[in-house]
């Protein structure tokens, strides 16, 4: 057969192209050097308890990338040895976990290499991945058998009812379910974007959970009380409903009230601020009053209650009316002399004299222990004085007399202080002596002593400040008196 030169050239070109194609396929696609000669590969042994469906030529992946294949699978006395052929140009850490996974539910197993420490030395030829670092999927046949048994255990009629009820429950809710799923996807993306913060929350949630465990009794009590409250609200549903229905109208009325009080309400509130400051300063005293108020109420009840529901003819208070005249002895030190005292029979109400008039005996004395001299200073704990200015002053308290009786003459006092007492920084009116200086000489006493008396009973106050009774001065005095009547004191009005 005669072959032309042109045909020979065409055959030669075809042979060259075929050889180039076969070479590219052998070296590029089939990777013949690696497949037949192991060039660029190294071998690692994988120890498994069983093959788990793994077969030769199964892929080996590292971080989701194929890095080799399963070269061979051999049975051993304790399990299976799978020889892995891995690419030499990929450095795989030796501290890793090898897992046999399935691409689908019906097979196509592969080996997945998961590193535990990326800084560990890389695997090298001849290494072994021990069984403790491997895991295999469950047997698909056993899983299918268990699933089949589970489905057979479900009553068919009930399953049909469940499907029908699910259709009725979710029928027509496609857009809502889709929106729910989109929201779940958005939530998952946000959680992934804030993964570090979520991990921090999870790591630090243990102390909070421990606290809840330790306070479980309190939580149970709180839940019980909450249940009682909700039960009460349920039982009083009509009342609660009425409150909610009437609340807007009541709020409107309150708003209208504040609108009507707008000119005067700010002034009242500003005044309340001043009262609040006073309340803060006297908080301890107010607290003491609130503490003693129940005790005082108890004492009053003890006086008035005992006769209730009894058969006694007379029901009165349980009090003792024993007369203790001048026990204790009255304190006149620090007050005006008896000649300057007003008679109780006067009905006018002139202004109080300037200065402070109070019992000015020693603070630790037995007379008038609860008087003004022992008022506690709220702003200066431990100090006692008769006024706020005296509390703020650094001057020590000096008693006027060591004796509660007035001496009759300010010059006769043991300290030479004036009566009344003037606070620091207060201008002293003419005719009065400031504390610490010799008192202004008083006007000479009248040549004849006199005193106003009660014409009904004949009682009067003497110059010494004591009360006397002259029986024959009273208008209701009997004309004739016996000696027995003279010994009986007059009856009080």
Walk me through what this model shows.
This protein is of the alpha/beta class and 493 residues long. The chain has 13 helices and ten strands. It has helices at residues 5-29, 32-37, 140-153, 156-170, 174-193, 195-203, 205-214, 216-235, 237-260, 265-281, 283-304, 388-392, 483-487; strands spanning 41-48, 59-62, 65-75, 80-87, 96-104, 107-115, 128-129, 134-135, 459-461, 467-469. Strands 7-1-4-3-2-6-5-8 form an eight-stranded mixed sheet, with no helix packed on it. A two-stranded antiparallel ribbon has the order 9-10. Mean pLDDT is 79; it is low at 436-440.
Relevant terms:
493 residues; 13 helices; eight-stranded mixed β-sheet; 10 strands; two-stranded antiparallel ribbon; alpha/beta
Could you give a short description of this structure?
It is built from 13 helices and 10 strands. With 493 residues, the protein is an alpha/beta fold.
């Amino acid at each position: 057969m005669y072959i032309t030169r042109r045909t020979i050239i065409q055959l030669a070109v075809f042979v060259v192209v075929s050889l180039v194609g076969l070479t590219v396929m052998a070296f590029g696609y089939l990777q013949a050097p690696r497949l037949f000669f192991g060039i660029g590969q190294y071998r690692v042994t994988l120890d498994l308890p069983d093959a788990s469906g793994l077969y030769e030529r199964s892929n080996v992946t590292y971080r989701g990338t194929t890095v080799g294949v399963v070269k061979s699978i051999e049975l051993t006395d304790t399990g299976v040895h799978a020889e892995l052929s891995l690419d030499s140009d990929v450095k795989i850490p030796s501290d890793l976990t090898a897992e046999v996974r399935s691409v689908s539910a019906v097979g196509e197993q592969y080996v997945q290499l998961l590193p535990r420490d990326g800084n560990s030395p890389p695997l090298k030829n001849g290494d072994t991945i021990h069984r403790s670092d491997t895991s295999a999927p469950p047997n698909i046949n056993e899983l299918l058998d268990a699933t089949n048994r589970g489905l057979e255990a479900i009553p068919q009629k009930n399953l049909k009812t469940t499907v029908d009820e699910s259709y009725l429950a979710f029928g027509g809710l496609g857009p809502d379910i889709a929106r729910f799923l989109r929201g779940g996807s958005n939530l998952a993306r946000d959680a992934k974007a804030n993964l570090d913060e979520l991990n921090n929350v999870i790591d630090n949630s243990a102390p909070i959970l421990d606290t809840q465990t330790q306070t479980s009794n309190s939580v149970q009590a709180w839940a019980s009380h909450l249940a009682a409250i909700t039960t009460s609200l349920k039982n009083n549903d009509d009342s609660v409903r009425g409150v909610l229905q009437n609340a807007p109208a009541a709020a409107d009325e309150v708003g209208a009230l504040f609108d009507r009080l707008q000119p005067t309400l700010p002034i009242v509130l500003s005044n309340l601020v001043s009262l609040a400051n006073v309340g803060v300063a006297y908080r301890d005293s107010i607290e003491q009053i609130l503490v003693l108020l129940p005790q005082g109420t108890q004492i009053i009840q003890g006086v008035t209650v005992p006769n209730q529901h009894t058969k006694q003819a007379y029901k009165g208070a349980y009090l003792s009316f024993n007369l203790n005249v001048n026990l204790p002895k009255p304190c006149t030190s620090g007050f005006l002399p008896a000649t300057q005292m007003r008679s109780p029979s006067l009905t006018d109400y002139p202004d109080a004299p300037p200065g402070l008039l109070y019992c000015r005996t020693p603070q630790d004395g037995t007379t008038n222990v609860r008087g003004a001299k022992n008022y506690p200073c709220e702003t200066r704990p431990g100090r006692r004085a008769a006024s706020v200015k005296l509390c703020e002053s650094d001057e020590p308290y000096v008693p006027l007399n060591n004796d509660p009786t007035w001496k009759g003459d300010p010059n006769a006092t043991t300290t030479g202080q004036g009566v009344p007492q003037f606070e620091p920084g207060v201008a002293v009116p003419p005719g009065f002596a400031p504390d610490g200086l010799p008192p202004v000489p008083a006007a000479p006493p009248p040549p004849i002593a006199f005193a106003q008396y009660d014409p009904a009973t004949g009682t009067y106050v003497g110059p010494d400040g004591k009360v006397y009774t002259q029986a024959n001065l009273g208008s209701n005095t009997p004309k004739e008196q016996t000696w027995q009547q003279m010994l009986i004191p007059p009856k009080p009005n």
